[in-house]
Structure formats: structure tokens, C-alpha cells
Amino acid sequence: MVATVKIAVLGAQGVGKSAIVRQFLYNEFSEVCVPTTARRVYLPAVVMNGHIMDFPPITAFPVNTLQEWADVCCRGLRSVHAYILVYDICCFDSFEYIKTIRQQILETR
Q: What CATH class has 6-108?
């Protein structure tokens, strides 16, 4: 039996979350930035029997299951096995954003 693995990719707007996912899964990179407005779920063969979820920027990490399911963008976020936290090294605000999200994950998991 193969275990299912779920991975969430989180970060501020415009830091390249979707670009990283597409590079990893499809070995492609686009110079065009199209903002992610809704959660996207990828079902790659490379992650055995699992999926990768690309999330738009969230205001805060959900503190409980009720809050997680009340916000469409956060659905499934608390049940993932790993988080990939992405920030732009040239943008201090994106680092502060991901630092806050990381702290919220640690406090609620």
C-alpha cells in the first residue's frame, strides 16, 4: 500500500508559488505572472499517490477545522503532511508574511 502525501505551497502574492510547482511537475517556466485566485490541486505522478495544493495568499492560517472549511481558499490546509513556504528574497514584506504564517502553523498544529 502506498501512502498518500499532501503538500501545501504557501506564500505572499507574486513570490512564485505556482511557478515553482509548474517547474517541479512539468519542467516548464513561464515569464508571465498570472496571479492565483483560488486553490489549485495538482495530482502528480512524481509524488506517489498524493497531491500538491497551490494556495492563493491567505490572511491567516486557520486555527481550527471550522475556520478551515469556512474559507474556500483554506480547505484542506490543516490536513496536509508538509508545507512549502515561499518568499521573494528581494521583498522583505513577503518574508514577514511567510514568517507570520509559519508561526501560525506552529501554534495551531
A: alpha beta
